[in-house]
Write a structure and sequence with these properties.
Shape: rod-shaped
Number of strands: 4
Number of domains: 2
Helix content: 55-70%
Strand content: 5-15%
Length: 201
């Protein structure tokens, strides 16, 4: 009787082991199938993400007769895209074309003029006129800063320029001197270079 009971228990355990093995195989097959499905879905999502990025990039780059509010929204979206490291881009071909286009646009853009101030104390009008004619002759836009009644500004420019004779010309915040120094810069070709120097990038 004990032997029959042992045989029955052994048979039941063997049956259970087979059932567990079968279930493990089924679960393993199901997991493998799900893994393949997830991989396929991941590839599809990646492809869709790339397509959406390219479509968004084209829309951001599109220019036309959009409403001013739409144009402003596109400008803001482009700025945000640049700040975030350009997550919306048009792929490798578009990146190469964009870099070529950007380089040609940079080369074609005229250089911006640095601010030019002419400090004047209200006394030597003849020299002031010569300075104005020299600057206008080169197409340089300037602003006259009258320091006749402004002792603080007058004191500052005399100290900064290290000279007391007016007019004093300042280009991009740097005093260059009076008419003689301005003429010398012009003869050396430095005047236009300083005024129209390319902006640092």
């Amino acid at each position: 009787m004990l032997q029959r009971l042992t045989e029955k228990i052994t048979g039941t355990v063997s049956g259970l082991t087979g059932t567990v093995s079968g279930l493990a195989g089924t679960v393993s097959g199901t997991v493998s199938g799900l893994t393949g499905t997830v991989s396929g879905l991941t590839g599809t999502v990646t492809g869709l993400t790339g397509t959406l990025r390219e479509l968004a990039h084209r829309k951001l780059q599109a220019t036309g007769n959009e409403h001013p509010l739409v144009q402003k929204a596109l400008e803001i979206a482009n700025t945000v895209n640049d700040i975030l490291g350009k997550p919306i881009h048009g792929g490798a071909e578009d990146d190469d074309a964009a870099s070529v286009q950007t380089a040609s646009q940079t080369a074609a853009k005229p250089r911006e003029q640095a601010p030019v101030l002419v400090y004047f104390d209200g006394k030597d009008h003849r020299t002031k006129t010569k300075v104005e004619e020299l600057l206008r002759g080169h197409g340089i836009v300037f602003q006259i800063q009258d320091v006749t009644n402004d002792e603080a500004e007058r004191s500052w420019i005399i100290t900064a320029a290290k000279q007391e004779e007016f007019p004093i010309v300042v280009i991009a915040g740097t005093p260059v001197g009076g008419f003689a120094e301005l003429t010398q810069l012009d003869v050396q070709g430095e005047l236009k270079r300083r005024v129209f120097a390319p902006l640092p990038q």
